[in-house]
Amino acid sequence: MTTGTVNTKRIKEGNVKIATILAFAMIPMSGFATDIYIPSLPGMTRALGITDSQAQLTLSLFLISYGLSQLFVGSLLDSYGRYRIALVSMITFCASCVVISNTQSIYLIYAMRILHGITIAAMVVSKRAFIVDLYSGEKLRHYLSIFTIIWSTGPIVAPFIGGYLEVNFGWSSNFYFLGGFAAVLLVLELIFSGETIKHTTPFHPEKILSIYTGMIRTGSFTLGIVMLGLAYSMVMIYNMSGPFIIEHHFSLSPVITGYCSLMLGFAWMVGGFIGKGLINKPFIRKMNINVLLQLMAALVLLLSFSLLGQLWTILAFAFLVHVGAGFTYNNYFTFCLQKFPRNAGIAGGLTGGLCYVIVSILSSSLIYLLPAKDGINLSLSYLSLILASAVVMYRVFLLNGKEQVHADA
């Protein structure tokens, strides 16, 4: 296969460290784009005269467009470079945030949220590939393992900020904040960053399709992505139901919603740190213990809320479920991205893309079957996802063992 070079601004050696910091700063954008306006979902329904399900659809549309976009954006990044695509995406994202903030049309908001998914996919996948381009060996493994920790700053900080923005300025201020944050990153990218890919892969659809096919046929890789989807679905189920439980069932303010989301976002980060700390421990044993602890937490949540019906019962045991979800995501994200280092853009796009498609389907389906009304439905949703994780995880272990035997042979 022939390769080429990208004729654009190359990153300067002296700027690599600060450009790496900027890359990590962009990783939480997907979390910010979903979580910052979580406390505003009930407020959006009132301000725009729409239903709860219509407001929740703005999350689902973002997730599915973000996921589907990653399926092809990786190949574009490997063929045309990371830098220019990321810059164009940031500019487009900023403009679409301004449009959302100045419209009362839910259908225009839907269109802009789809555009958000596409542009953030390009931004985030380009920065994943950026890390693989510049680092290797133990340092690469270290950076990949902290991706989920860095990403978790979005779910922690965003709802906290969003709650105060909602109370003081209304739902549209969330999108002004998103656009402003992206604009700052854009300026810094122009000053400090640049292209990192050394040799491009010609954009031949047939050859690219064969790469995708080879990755998907690697069973442990594909089921590893399913595990990522199941883990993040636990977070998204809460994101889609929590605001309505807190603000409708308990009649509390959006600021309380923000504090609760901050707490559960912190739980995800704790799980990521634990995953990084135990990165060298036996994989099967630590994952089995994790699923068992999650199952116990979800069962106690179901029992305690049935008996007491208090908000603290949801938060206490959902916290433990989310710690386990962050632990799962950290381990399987590193597992998947290390599988195909020669095609980092495609592997990163495929991993994130399929993960978010799975999340959008699972979370929307569970919200439809178990509507956002109380802690009982939330705990049943958790239990469904945890049991599915146990089954898929068992298959991953079996397939990874077989693939290792074939590789050694």
UniProtKB/TrEMBL annotation:
The residue ranges crossing the membrane are 18-38, 58-77, 84-101, 107-130, 142-162, 174-193, 214-235, 255-275, 287-305, 311-332, 344-370, 376-397
Principal localization reads membrane
Claim: Phosphoprotein is one of the keywords in the record: no
Which PROSITE patterns does this UniProt record tie to the protein? Answer: MFS (PS50850)
Tell me where in or outside the cell this protein is found: Membrane
Q: For the Major facilitator superfamily (MFS) profile domain, which residue ranges apply?
A: 19-404
Q: Tell me which UniProt keywords the record has, alphabetically.
A: Membrane, Transmembrane, Transmembrane helix, Transport
The record describes its membrane topology as: Multi-pass membrane protein
- What name has this protein been given in UniProt? MFS transporter
* The species this protein was found in: Chitinophaga hostae
Identify the taxonomic lineage of the organism of origin: Bacteria, Pseudomonadati, Bacteroidota, Chitinophagia, Chitinophagales
